[in-house]
Amino acid sequence: MGTPETSREPCPDRILDDIGGAFGMGAVGGAAFHFLKGTYNSPSGSRLLGGTQAVRMNAPRVGGSFAVWGGLFSTFDCTMVYVRQKEDPWNSIIAGAATGGFLSMRQGFGAASRSAMFGGILLALIEGAGGLFGGKKQEPATGSGSKTEVLESFDAPPVPSFEYK
């Protein structure tokens, strides 16, 4: 469980958590896509069977591809947090570029650099949209840690006291 400052898991656990989440998203999305594709491409008498067969054949592969991308991205993100000693949107942007470049290295330097640039731009757009729509982050309270601040509200009951009387 993440600390209130980071609200995310610590890095070794974060990598495994992101791999599992990415596999789940890829498997569910791949299952939906390939079920529709298998249903559409099957003969009229066996559309349901064709859809389920397409899911069994393709959904784990798509989930595995998503898991590899998520694992590499999370590893690069944690590496950037360690190297830069801060957690900000630049880590995700650099991690997206590194992941895109690393996954395209087999196609050569040109393809890897284009893919890295695309990955960085995509993550910059995602981080920018998150900043626009995510609102302002809450500042941590600087007062004493044990005092609870009660905001003025007219429809909320008072905070209960647990002192014995």
Description of the structure:
With 165 residues, the chain is mainly alpha-helical. It has a domain at 8-66. The protein contains four helices and no strands.
List the helices and strands and how they pair.
Layout: H1 11-41, H2 47-84, H3 89-103, H4 109-133
Helix pairs in contact: 1-2, 2-3, 3-4
Continuous helix count: 4
From the alpha carbons, calculate the radius of gyration and give it in angstroms. Answer: 23 Å
Q: Which spans of ≥5 residues are poorly predicted at pLDDT below 50?
A: none
| Helix/strand structural class | mainly alpha
Distance between the ends = 37 Å
Biggest β-sheet: count, sense, barrel?
none
Number of strands: 0
* Helix proportion range: 55-70%
Overall form: flat
What's the average pLDDT? 87
Q: Secondary-structure element order, as H and E?
A: HHHH
What percent of residues are in strands?
Answer: under 5%
Which terms would index this structure?
0% strand; single chain; 165 residues; mainly alpha
Brief account:
This protein has helices at residues 11-41, 47-84, 89-103, 109-133.
